[in-house]
Records
---
Amino acid sequence: MNAHRFWNWFLAPGTLWILVLFAAPLLLIFALSFGHVDDFGRGVYGFKLGNYDDVFNSTYLPVLLRSVGYALATMLICLAIGYPVAYYIARFGGRWRYVLLAALVIPFFVNYLVRTYAWVALLADEGLVNNAIVDLGLSDAPVQMINTPWAVIGGLVYGYIIFMILPLYGSIERMDQSVVEAGKDLYGSPLQTFIHVTIPATQAGILAGCVLVFLPSVGDFVSAQLLGGPDTYMVGNLIQDQFFAASNWPFGAALTMIMMLFLSVWMVLYLRRAAKGEAEVL
Amino acid sequence: MAEQAIKIDGVTKRYGEFVAVDDVNLEINKGEFFSLLGPSGCGKTTTLRMLAGFEVPTEGRILLEGEPVEKVPPHKRNVNMVFQSYALFEHLDVEGNVAFGLKRKKTPKAEIQTRVADALELVDLSSRAKSRAGELSGGQRQRVALARALVNRPQVLLLDEPLGALDLKLRRQMQIELKQIQREVGITFVYVTHDQEEALSMSDRIAVMSDGRVVQCGAPEEIYEHPSEEFVAGFIGISNLLQGKAEGQGRVRVGGNSLPVPDLPSDFRTGDPVQIAVRPEKVAVDEIGNDNEKIQPGMFTVDGEIESMVYLGVGNQLTLKLASGGRLVALEQATYRVQSDDQWQVGQQVRVGWHPEHCMVLS
Ligand SMILES: Nc1ncnc2c1ncn2[C@@H]1O[C@H](COP(=O)(O)OP(=O)(O)O)[C@@H](O)[C@H]1O
Ligand SMILES: [Mg+2]
């Protein structure tokens, strides 16, 4: 008993850390979301629900929907690109598997902002790609690539695809290969076997990859800020602007709370599925 | 002659330089329970996988009811496999697993239902139809794998050590059930195992494999009583191997003794080396001076002493040192000696005997 209590003290520093640096700011944001802005543009604590009304008014609703739409598109593109990549590395990578994985992971140690700037250099009207197109005479004028939804989604895909590939790789690698053979043995063509056996057998990885790409994509502001324009404004940009340019902290706080609520619903759904998946394995 | 289900014609499988299966020739009859028996790594699974279509032979042909199939992919062969790991579909319930093959073959819904129900009945799993694969015990998973394959009524059912993961008691029980099911459905079974008892008790015929080759193929009694070579004699049960020289007139000289060996083929000439084997359970042991208890008239006898004794439950395994040199192992049934004052002593002088026809000549 006493020994147990003794060891519990070792939890204290971590608990304190989480309380001070995680829970406290969250509570402050939560409190601020019910406040208002005074005449000098400073956030003042109070109690009004108006900020939450504003989140869903007609000016901002399209921004929310657009964010979700971009994140869904990002998720699907990541899945479409990531699945074959993960599959080939896991199944046919042989002893090069870890080298290939490292080659995929290492670029992600470079700051996301810096990597996105590289895309600007590539896609801008005066960028590498457009210069090449004009020089080769494929087009008279630069092709509009930056400031389009596809540039923003492309940036998101590039930014988060590794979060799709790694869980997919894990579940494909773990999959019992004889299950796939059983599918073929039981008269499944290669395509049928993929749909009816391989995908269900790797669904835990698919789900994890989708959630891990979707969640950060919804809240992302870097890609839209660097690669997009006014038409690709996402909720992450909106929140950032409330805390900087527009200086409306209470509204920014309300937006943040709504975002967190939305994302936690997904997170909880995912964690429950994951827990259930584990129970089945054991 | 019975109709042929499978003909394996000069099949060799190489992985690079390594020869996994070496010029195998086998003919398997329809409705037969045929076993591939051999130690781990001898090429049993590879042979089975070539029958299923997962591996293509490097050389040779495989005929399924007369049709060459060696290049036909697995999903187009009317052959099903019970995998060693069972390979059940964890995301489906028992019914879904069993219905998988019929659905891929676009069988009408109503027919799928009745056939799946029948198959589950056959393996005694009707009550678990809605269970997930993960909720089943090892024995139940094994039955699902069996039902999932049998429901398709394949021309041949392939089984790769299907009972290997079960504990001994369950394995014995499943052996009996599997054999019963096979008789009931009448489908040709090709059964892979490294367990000689299992192969002997279940099979109509056995092919013993070693290093990728089939070394002997025949009925269980034939393989047990007339092993063709040392490997088979040693792998199937324990054998006493004796090296000798032919003496003519059906006798072989081993050490200081001249043994009668009625099975000795006539093409052995005097002085030719002969290898013979005697099964331990055929060797009778008696006290000297009281040698008509188990040693029967007509037996060949030699004297020796008990060197060691192992209690096996069903009997005693005695290692005997012969007066003429050399050693023999004898397996004595426990029914002979029940009283403790009647036990053998290590060092005791004994007389050992066996019927000459139990001397097996190995090539
Ligand atoms: N895909 C493969 N590549 C290389 N060697 C293999 C392959 N499959 C099997 N082998 C080798 O072939 C031999 C026979 O294997 P296997 O048929 O699985 O034996 P068994 O089932 O009798 O234990 C083994 O030595 C194994 O290592
Ligand atoms: Mg094997």
---
Amino acid sequence: MNSFYKKNGPVIATFFLVAIIFWLVFLIVIPQLYMLDLSFRPNLPPLLRGGPDDVYTLTHYKHFLYGSETSKDAYNYVDIGVFLDTIITAVLVTIINLCFCYPIAFYIAKLATPNTARLLVLALVIPFWINELLRSFAIRILFAGEGVINNILLELGLISTAVNFIALDIALYTGLTYAYILLMIFPLYNALETLDTNQLEAAKDLGSSTVRTHWRIVIPHAKAGIASGSTMVFMLTAGALATPVVLSSPNTYWFTQLIYQWFNMNDNWSRGSAYSIILLVVSVTFVLLMMRLFKVTIGEVVR
Amino acid sequence: MSAEVELQNVSIAFGNFYAAKNVNVKIGAGEFFSFLGPSGCGKTTLLRAVSGFLEPSQGKVLIDGQDMSGIGPNKRPTSLIFQNLALFPLMSVADNIAFSLEVRGHDKVQRRKRADELLDLVALNGQGDKKVHELSGGQKQRVAIARALAVEPKVLLLDEPLSALDLKLRQKMRTELRAIQQRVGITFIYITHDQGEALTMSDRVGVMNDGELEQVGSCYDVYEAPCTPFVATFVGENNAFYGKVEKVEGVKVKVQTGGSSFIGQAGLGLDKKNYKFKAGDEVIMFVRPEAISLKGNSKKTQNSFSAEVKTIEFEGNLKNIFLRSAEDVDIRFSVPSSSDTSGMEPSKNVSLSFSQDNAVVLPTGALALD
Ligand SMILES: Nc1ncnc2c1ncn2[C@@H]1O[C@H](COP(=O)(O)OP(=O)(O)O)[C@@H](O)[C@H]1O
Ligand SMILES: [Mg+2]
């Protein structure tokens, strides 16, 4: 602490401290705690809040599992289905993203000349100056029934009738994969960049194939970067809203869309909070489990 | 199994810059051959051309008579030890050593057995389960050697593998490397900027300067009969007297340098024949520090001159005495530490001499800077 003050001078050090504490406490901890609290309370009109009916209850969590009291089903198949769909799709998107980004990151980090690498990074970054919603609409235009891709395929005679990419959710997967590509590429790049090129050559000299060199040397070296990128992509994909709203087929729901509905359309903030907490807890647990499985520590991931 | 390596007119260009220029050398099967040269002279580049990481821009690399163009490093009977060793830090020592066997699909038991044999060979018994970072510098060195030998190469290529070690260890590893080479009997191509290393280990040495191979010969030849001023000054220490040829008598050359005239031997050219000089040629006469002695035993075959003592440097077994001759040439010579140097205080004038047989006369050319 003292050395922090010495290094930065009193004014800047105080500013940093205040800013960090403000950010942590007011923008993260308090809202989340408020949501947590809200999720355990009944959805009451403002007048009744704090009254005798305002007691802690599990009703929203129960609703997620068993559905409304009037429902005949044993479980809330719809919401649980959407939830599982979201998690599974997010996992798939993360894996596709990783498979897609790993070669790019490897190329930039180890194979490209410095100039090519800079150009590639620019080409990757610039599209992200456009906001997420616009990018999603652009992808929608690409994949629409009379969109660019269909027109090209029709023109080439590869298909005879337009493919409904939206209904097949291909547009959604593409949009989601593309949306967080940078969050995968940069941690991967950082990890791969520190790999000594001589190790690749040594492996080659010892007779190793490219695949084996990656499997035995490059991937183990980049493990922390892979974990870090995958974690971020998974979390953000599972929590994405704009892209699914624009790109999902009419009968596909993203779990965040349900949350959004509870908050806004149905004006049930408590249930919305409960659903958010479920998403958060399950996502975090899932990530921790995966890290355990692949023997990565949190320290490595946030490095 | 060892193999012969031949470089035929090998040139290697990076853009317009030639890192190796028209290198020709034939390295015999089972030979310990060193490329010796200052850093940046193209040694690594040349070695990468032999191992297959680089294709020569011109010329050919032949291994056992077979043209290697288009054959990748994994297909050549060579194995390279990198300057920084490039061990795999996330694998155990045994896994590192047996990596090439893993690649070829050998099972765990076979791999372990071979790794243990190789660990024995490099005197690291029982260290197989350690992680690489748990080893000392010298031990890592040995692991790198074992890993390279695991592919049973016919030619082992070593890129300054000892440069990261401290002096004592380096000297110990020299002996050991030589012993390993004799045990496995394969061709070793070693590159280094350290002449001591090259001279102690090698059968033959190739001295490189600025991408060119200036001289190839036995350690003795390179030291005693340098072909060029660069070799004369890069390999060991040398005193250089610039001058003009006054008279030639067979291989004896009389050189006018400053105010005095010295007689020396015409040096040997690359063709092993003495250089032919004629009166008036610009030449340099080289005299090794150990060939200079304090005057006293004056025979007819001695050249003598006087010089002013500048400094005396104590180097354990030797004393190096730095002087400046009457003609303003910097001279250094050394005597055993036990010698009496009481008469040699700085700024005193002393008489020195050297034998005509120990002076080598070469055409002018660039010296090695140190
Ligand atoms: N890939 C490369 N691209 C351009 N120049 C290079 C490359 N590799 C080496 N060089 C240049 O070639 C020369 C010889 O390098 P190197 O073979 O590494 O020398 P050494 O091993 O003798 O120290 C140096 O001037 C170096 O800058
Ligand atoms: Mg080098």
---
Amino acid sequence: MVNYDNAKDLLTWEFDFALSTYYEIETEAIEHLLPKQLNPIEVAPGIALMSLTALNFPPGALGHLPEFQELIFGLIVTPDLSRGVPKFAMYIVSLSSTNREHLEHCVQHYRLPVHGQFTGVSLQHDPHVVEYEDADGPILSMRNIHPNPAYGEGERYFQAFVMDNDRLYVADVVMKGSLFEHQQTGDAGKLWPHPFYNGVDVEAAEPVAFMQMLNEPGTMGKQLYPRPEKFR
Amino acid sequence: MSPTKKDLPPYTDYTFDMFIKSAGKDHAEITQFNEWRRQVLGADMYTFQIPHLGAQRPEVSVQRVSGDRLDLISLSSYNYLGYSYHPEVLAAAKEALDLYGLGATGSPVLNGTFRIHEVLEDKLIEFFGMPGYGVSLFSSGYGANIGVVSAYAHKGDVVVLDRLSHASLVDGAILSQATVKLFKHNDAEHLDRVLSRLDHKNLRILVCTEGVYSADGDTGHVKDIVRVSKKYGATVLVDEAHSLLIAGENGRGVSEEQGVLDEVDMIIATFSKSFGGVGGCLFAREELTNYVNWYARSRMFSCALDPAVTGGLIKALELAGGPDGKVKRERIKANADYLRSLLQGEVDIGNSHSWIIPVIFGDEHLYIPLSDYLQREGVDASLMSFPAVPKNQSRIRLFVTSEHTKAQLERGAEVILKAAEHFGFLLEN
Ligand SMILES: Cc1ncc(COP(=O)(O)O)c(C=O)c1O
């Protein structure tokens, strides 16, 4: 699917928890965050998608790092199909985790827009439920909506765009594992107004869950993530 | 053994939204789409755009890309009442063809309107039995929706759509440049909340719903939607594409069935379905249709409805409004009930109460192999998957007509159930 022969500094991150929710949000509420080269994917006129992905990395996921948790806020955008056909493309708006060393690595290796360090995370593997907060207060609570996930081994290729020093970068990322994706409707939790969302008024925007992706509890998944390269 | 994801070739991994657009100048979506198409063709699994060799009857012949000719039970055409090949309809079309020629060769507002178009308009008003109303004819149902919505709503107005609205209503809303709001499918309470948040005292609001929704075959909650919309002074459009000539005692659609025909502001009809032809129209108060005739751009800047088709449509409408229509309406409903009874309990047929019956097979990876299988086993069916329907809810959409015999429906059901066993979507009893 993705050819990593020429990938720069490809790292493999092993995770034992993943829960990602795409929320519908009015395009108007997020447009200002996107670089001019990227356009939001709209699922209905004026309705874009923002994603929140919570991951848990067990000890040793990368070198000597202890167990830590991560949260990524992204916007779903038009991919660059000349690189291959991904499941989706995401422009990463902000990222936090519980581990300072990990955050430094994110900045140096991946040019990721690090927001800060969490002060409190609660994470339940089965059923999937997470809550994150930092010094500015609660950020989100998120849970799986689907009552009986049917997991299957799979690979998901996605393009991760980031902005660094006014330049756009992209990485071809592959997520592997026993995964499940669904569009069950229901209550996926709550997003609290917080600087993590970079000015997106998540309360006024009333995000509605559009899709969720999760990994099978008790199994390990892998994220293959090379160093991003300049995008045009 | 049913195939698992591992056995499936890579081209099954793509959903149709993946080639819509690519960032950058090089049109990589065109290259990637063609690569995908080549792979499916190469595997002789390409069932799309398959040429049909005759009319859309309950039994059809098609020609595969390989050249093989297949004889199939058709459960995929929305020729609901069989008028596309009815001898009297064809005779009327031929007569009009001889009189007016092949095409209208002009915009309807300028020189493209023929006497026969006016006859169709009059017959439609008569059919609805509503004096003071008018008809605005379009050369497609798609054109009717985009034209009407964008002629009525503009920047600064609001178009409120059911989440499952047909693409033509969505596109009309985009074209109008109005603000678009969505309400949960068929949920009048949610619509109420959406409308209550708008400045409804000052804004022009158009609420759109449909008579029968073609993804699930469920009926629009038109009565409740009209009641809520009126509370906020909103205008209501009902697209009766899949219900006109069928639903309601006189075939005037779901709006008639639910007793709100005179409260609906705009009725959209398509002539491509139960009429068996092509085209569409707006049925509304004459003042409005007069205006739409001029200001719907898909009408003003497009050639008038084909005259031969128009002749056929007049005959189809005449038949549907008389005893023939009554018999066919009863028969299509009985046929749909019969097909449901053959499938119920064996496969997931959702919540259909109409002549459209979904058979939900779930996994979108099965779309191409299942489509191919059904064709080779003898059924012409149309499938739908993500993003047209939610993930894991891919479905075979079965269209029942008044013209199917019991034996044809039985043969169709047999193939569907065989496929369900092969692909593992039989319900566990
Ligand atoms: C609900 C609805 N509206 C409008 C249309 C467009 O009609 P036409 O095919 O006549 O252009 C369709 C066609 O499938 C439809 O299902």
---
Amino acid sequence: MENLIEVKNLYHRYEDGQKMRAVLKDINITFETGKLYAVVGSSGSGKTTLLSLLSGLDSVQDGDITYLDESINDIGYTKYRKEFVNVIFQSYNLINYMTAIQNVITAMDIKKVKVPNKKEKAYEILENLGIDKETADREVLKISGGEQQRVAIARALVHNSKVILADEPTGNLDDDTEDEIIDIFKDLALKGKCVIIVTHSQNVAKHADIIYEIKKGKIKIKKD
Amino acid sequence: MFKRSWISVIKNKGRTIILATLLFVIANLVLSSISIKSATIEAMDQARISLGPEITLTTNKTDLFDYIRSYRDEYGTRPSSEEINNLLTPISSEIAYEIAESEYVTDFNFSFTTSTVAVGFLPLNDVGTLDYTNINKISVTGTYNPILLDQFGDSGAYELTLESTSFSGSDQGVIIISETLAFQNDLVIGDTLSLVNQEGLNETGFIIVGLFNSEDAFETTGRNIIDNEVFIPLNDALSINGQDYTSNFTITTAKYYLDDPLNIDLFVEESTLNHEEISSGALTFNDVNYDAITAPLQSVASFSDIVLIAVVVAAVVILTLLIINTLKERKYEIGVLLSLGEDKIKISLQYLIELLLIATVAFTLAIATSNSISGYLGDVLIENEVADASTETTDTPKGGGGGGMITLTPLGDVEYIDEIDVSVSFNDFLVTIALGSMIIILSSAIPSLYITRFQPKKILSSRN
Ligand SMILES: Nc1ncnc2c1ncn2[C@@H]1O[C@H](COP(=O)(O)OP(=O)(O)OP(=O)(O)O)[C@@H](O)[C@H]1O
Ligand SMILES: [Mg+2]
């Protein structure tokens, strides 16, 4: 196991009227490969903020985030998102007018995945996540929430980047589907990925190897 | 990127149809104005060709007319002829020969018109009989070649009788007079007559070599003016006037024959550039016939220019707004692409390709329709302009009785070009494609800037 992502002295502030309000204060944590992390905290505590910083969707204001000892700033945010991390959101974030398979292929195109037959590979990834060919060919608005979230996960597996970040990935799903999705994440962690899940759900958190809790801008290890 | 553009165009049918309709209308308007413009240019070239390859340099009298008019309003009389002469810049032989050296000029003819007094014969009055009251005034036109003068040309009103001969630049002491003038004075070809200048000096004798008749011209010009006009070699006319034709002299008109009627504009431009007298407006090329018959075309041409500019500007503005609006709709999609690590430039490019795909279809459809649309528009425009122009020419000034000093070529009934053949050529289509691409690229520019300001985090987490 290696130290993949390191967060050092991270602060994050939002404009609040005239003054700046710190949501994250002096965060120092490390994420390793092969582990499932849960980040918990009350609503508004800064979980999504931390996740968008880890995923390169928002830029680091103060402090540093490194990937294999290289700062995101040096890597470049677009390159970082394209090559090193994958994000999954509560609302799946698929392109609505495309079919499931087209969504996966779009990710392959953007991430410059080199395989002989992209379509075949995409079907295969979806198949492994329990999406059959017939479902894969449907437009994403015509498949269930659980299936959409699997498509979003499939999109994160098109290349062998090691980090998967998820913000409330089961927030819109019923308990049974939630369990299925958690199993997928656990399996991915076992296969060597670094999986970081932001969640409200106790059910999700209890499967994690490590639980971080954000409180008043600080982060603490809750379970190790 | 192409794949994504394609999927988006196919799947978002509503948006595609709106854009396609808009682009189809734009393509038709652009194609129409371009093809109407090129049809008018083509028709103007035809007018040039039909009017022949010649153009005449004259003293500019337009300012003088204005002066005489205001003088008359103030004092009730015409200014003295001395004053009038001072206001006119004669053409110096130096300039006339210099212009003849232009690469476009293949031949030229000069003429010099002056008032003289008849010796031993009488001028005619306005009913065509001997005029005993007149001070024997005869208007003389000296020229290198009378046949090349406007009066004798294909469209001129004067015709030499069968037994007449003409003369050339090297001839001396020969004269062509009106058939009626000869008849009333009992003169025939081979007889002689003499002329002196207005001071009674420089008497010169001439042998009559030709007679002309001019029945057609009597309607528009007083018969006495025509009958009392004679034609002699340029050098003789200059001598009577007291000028030395072996050195610098001045003439009334210089007519140039060009290699190609279509070079007239270039020739005029070149001469204007090289001669201060022309650029200042003291001397001018007489292009009234061309200007007159092409007047409706010129209006149509400038109108189609204005339409084209207006269409391009309006198209860019409308498309820009429309694209920005769709970007708001597509914010979420953009956020997704950005979170997957797509470059903002590639997203802009994708949208540009989508537009180009739709534009290709719209422009292709426009080929089919634009021919009839532009044909119809062209007809309507030219009919309007001809109607306008016909009412305007009624108050064009015609030749005034300035004792032969001031005469404008009478326009008579102008035959306007009242038809243009508008059809969309391959060339028009290429120009339209170039303009269309320009419109699309311009209207994608601002939306692209807009995309670079997108913040994926805000877009995506706001949905959570
Ligand atoms: N763009 C922004 N501008 C200003 N304030 C913001 C912005 N985004 C988030 N905040 C504020 O920062 C704090 C943390 O927000 P964040 O979205 O990270 O919370 P969270 O832990 O994900 O909450 P939830 O569990 O409800 O999703 C909140 O108080 C929020 O109002
Ligand atoms: Mg949140």
